[in-house]
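hey m, so remember when u said the tokens were messed up on ur end? i reran from scratch. heres the input so u can diff it against urs
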Amino acid sequence: MAEVTLSQRTLQWPQQFPRGFLLVAAVAWWLLYQSLAPASEALVAALPVDRDSHLGGALQFFLYDTPKVLLLLTLVVFVMGMVNSCFTPERTRALLAGRTEGVANVMAASLGIVTPFCSCSAVPLFIGFVQAGVPLGVTFSFLISAPMVNEVALALLFGLFGWKVAALYLGLGLTVAIVAGWIIGRLQMERHLEDWVREMPKVSATADEVRLTLSERIAAGFASVREIVGKVWPYILAGITIGAVIHGWVPQAFMASIMGRDAWWSVPAAVLIGVPMYTNAAGVIPIVQALLAKGAALGTVLAFMMSVIALSLPEMIILRKVLKVRLIATFVGVVATGILIVGFVFNAVL
């Protein structure tokens, strides 16, 4: 009976002492994060492999990056789960409805960073935006930004590469989302929506104020961790495994020859390779880390990452339910052009 009571008290602690819980959890997270490097080296040293061999290097990469990425992901998803409790789909639509193009494109792309929507939410969000009277180009700015420039991608980039790369990716991603959405809006392609979408009755978008206690926001953070981390961890393991193989066995000169600055065709090839891949930011960033360590050019790697996240084939299949083929082709062409420009420009100047 005492054990049950203790368990119940443990579960109730975040609700009864939310500030104390957050402080203790932050300290525990930091201590665990700081122990990753020595722990991974000790584990490799305890194994019957040479640390300087291909296998030893791959194992150290895997044993260090797996808990590191999962810890970073858990922290960011928890914090953003608390923040995202304010951004319901209804409130997001209300913030965008009635805005003029240009300003609305910037707002939509910015909202995409902090709203918890991925490509899986594309169809219901698209329908909701159309019903609320949000312009087509503004809707696309949001749908490009939400999966590509999300908090998971930015946090992992910051944790693995530092603030400069994270800020660079943020600026590039927002630029692509804003400009691509504006261009699609200027093309006036509403007639290429599926007929049943265009014929839906318009509804007013209301932004109901959300007032939650700190304890309720902590609960929302836990729910976000269970949902998002529970879905993406297989992609993380797959991405880190691929990254470990690249790190351990792929020669640096070979990688530099096919993804370096001197290979002009590397950027379009990276985009073409990225489109059919089915993964997300958490899964692709460990691969990006390994590619950069082996001498791949930053612009090429960023183009690859953006195409994987923003132009994935599964998202195109989902969007086919509400868009005609010509509009999907225009969407892919405009976004791909922006990604190619990003890759070429940064390979030229960095």
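this time it looks ok to me. Residues 117 and 302 are 22 Å apart (CA to CA). if urs says something different then somethings off w ur setup not the seq
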